[in-house]
Structure formats: structure tokens, C-alpha cells
Amino acid sequence: MCTPARGNNVKEPPDLIAEMRAAHPPRLYGTPDCETWSVRFSPDGTLFAWSMGYGVIKLQPWPLSSRDITSSAEAGRGGEKTFNCKFLVWALAFGPCGSSRASPSRLNKAKQDLLLAAGLHNGSIQVWDTVTGYLRYTLNGHQAPVRDLLFCPNGSLTLISASRDKTLRVWDLVKKGSNPRVLRGPNHWVFRVSISPDCSIIASVCNLDSKVHLWSLRSYTLMKHLKYEQERTMAACEFSMDGALLAVASYHTHTGWWMDLWDPYTADLVTRVEDCEQCGYRSDNLLTSLSFSPVGLLLAFKDYRALQIWDVERDQLVSDTDHNRAGVVCCAFHPQGGVIATGCRDGHVKFWRVPPIVPSLRHLCRVALRFSVSTYQVQALPLPKKLLDYLTYRDIPTQKIIYCKEHHA
């Protein structure tokens, strides 16, 4: 079902590992329903799933074999599976999604019963068995397309869904999704959702309300809003690996994009990354996706100009690649780092090599502490201000402008 990019004699970037195309290319550029709206690696990194457009999901082993890259692959060949959902697939999520803090029994169960959830255009969620390839069950309740899905990163079968019907739902798949919790409040389509690593907070963004909604996953109530003064379209949000930072992507068609790092506990804006001043006026240069690396403090983000990876701790760009304007709409790091996958509007998937970054020992200590200690608790400790600023990420620049190669300062 996938074929390699070939035959145009275009020199590929050196950090491009592989590129795959759907077997049925779009009839015209911009034709709807062919987009790759979601790409995901399994929690252990041995499987890769992507929505191929036209309601089809491809599941294949990782790393890719030479056959996957150089020849057309038939359904079921070499451990691959193809799921026909019959409706456009907006979102994918593997679960249970165990973290390093999950209990060994939960982690072992996660390996045995790995599921793949798919959010569809008709508002339903299909849950597939990755081993047998069978459809386990279908979750109904949303009245509009399901735009995002995430399993709680604690090894449980709790699934969070975000929909254009202006709600989020919390499903317990142990009970086969019966009687889900419904979170209401937004007045616009809910586009993206993220769950803090300790499973205490849900962050969600809508397309037009210029704020971030923070929900309690323990009481299922709205905790607070992170508000913006200027009108903007919200594109994505994601917690860092320790939950101490929340990255939020937004844009305005006349002024470019912003990427903000918030403290979810205090609602303080820690730093703001802005689009190139010379390119900010471009109506097509919009930030479409972002993702924190599970290794180190790397943040990948993609606009219509390039895929860039920012080392937040060292305050430097470590990668600037994929300079075509095919329109990447999603990205995901491999759980062990080293690779990032991107999905495009034309149905392509690309795999990029991530520069090897060794996290500093002090950062690892900060992550271990901040995983379970809030900003307020850290600030109450009798520590020097410089150390407190480091532990609360107040030592990084408060503002940064990302210049493109053409206008590099």
C-alpha cells in the first residue's frame, strides 16, 4: 500500500531517512480526504501507524525494512496490517500507553493488549487490536469529527477524545467505553488535547477562542484558562516530559505564528517563540504541529517553511530541514528519540533523523523532581533563586525569534 519517493532526481536532505506515499495518490493537489492527518509510534517503538487518507490506516513494524521503502507493500505482508475505517481518519492513538512510572504489571499488560484507536469524520471512534487486526468495538457519542485522541500515560485504558462538537470525552475502555465523562465549556471546535505525564491535567485548544482550557482529570472540571490578549487561531498544545511546561502553537494569517511555553500550574507565560519578522506577513506560513521529544528538552515544530527542532535547554536550533511547502500537518517523535515522523497533506509520510542530544545530568534531575512536584511546591523550597529559576524553567529566554535561512540575522 505504500511506495517510495522516486524518479524526480531531486536531491534529498541528508537527514531524510525514508519517505512513503499512499498507493492511491491525490487526483489533484489539494484534493480533500487524501491527507495524512495523524502519525504515531507505539509506546515501545516497534510499530508505526499512519492515516493514509480515504479512511485507511496502515500499521507496520518499525524500523522499516528495505522492502517497505523500495517496493510496494501488500496488506498483511511482513507483519503489516491495513485497517479500512470507511471514514476519513483524523486522529490515532496507541494504548495502553505506559510511562516509566507505570507499574510493571501494567506495562506487561500493555505489551499483550496493544490497541489502536482511530477518531473518524463521522464522530465515532474505532478501537482495533494490533495483534489480530480485528475491530474490537466502536465508541459512539460525539456528534462531529473526532480531531484528537490520547491514552493516559499511566498504563491504563483511559482514552481522551476531542471533537468538533465542542466537547471532550473521557472513555474507560475496560468498560468498553460505556457512559463516558463529557467535558463541556468551549464555544468552538476542540482541535487538540494533551495530558500531563502525571495524568492530573488535560489541556485542550479550540480553533478560534484564543485561549487554552486546563481540565482536572481527577474531578473532570475546568481548572483555569491560559488567555491571550490578541486574537489568534489555536493549532496545537503539548506537555513536556515532566509536565512542568505546556507548549502552545497558534497563528494569525496576517502576523505569522507564535509558539508559547506556559507554566500550567501558575498560568505564567515562560517564553514566546515568534515567526521570522520578514516572513510573518505570509498568509501560508502557519504553524501546523509541534511535539516534545521524549529524550532531552527538544521541541519540534513545523510551519509551511521548514521542520525545525529547538533545544530549549541550550536555546539553539539543532535541526532545520524539510523546506518544501507540501504542508505537514502532524509530527511525532519515536519513543527512544533519534527519529521524527511527519505526515503531509498530499498523503506522504517522511522520517527524519534527529541530531543526537545527550540530556545533561542536571536536566534529568529536574525532570525527576518536576514530574511529581508542582511549581508552587518548588518555589516554597529554601533554595537559591538561581536554582529555583532553573527548576521552574525561568532561566530560559523570555522571547525568541526564529529567523528563516533567507533572513538569518
Automatic annotation (TrEMBL):
WD repeats: 139-173, 321-354
Pathway connected to this protein: Protein modification; protein ubiquitination
InterPro entries for the chain: SOCS_box (IPR001496), SOCS_box-like_dom_sf (IPR036036), WD40/YVTN_repeat-like_dom_sf (IPR015943), WD40_PAC1 (IPR020472), WD40_repeat_CS (IPR019775), WD40_repeat_dom_sf (IPR036322), WD40_rpt (IPR001680), WSB_SOCS-box_domain (IPR051983)
Keyword annotations from UniProtKB, A to Z: Repeat, Ubl conjugation pathway, WD repeat
Keyword Repeat: yes
Domain of life of the native organism: Eukaryota
Pfam families for the chain: SOCS_box, WD40
Keyword Repeat included in the entry's annotation: yes
GO biological process, one term: intracellular signal transduction
SOCS box domain residues: 358-397
PANTHER family (alphabetical): WD REPEAT AND SOCS BOX-CONTAINING PROTEIN 2, WD40 REPEAT PROTEIN
Protein name, UniProt field: SOCS box domain-containing protein
Lineage: Eukaryota, Metazoa, Chordata, Craniata, Vertebrata
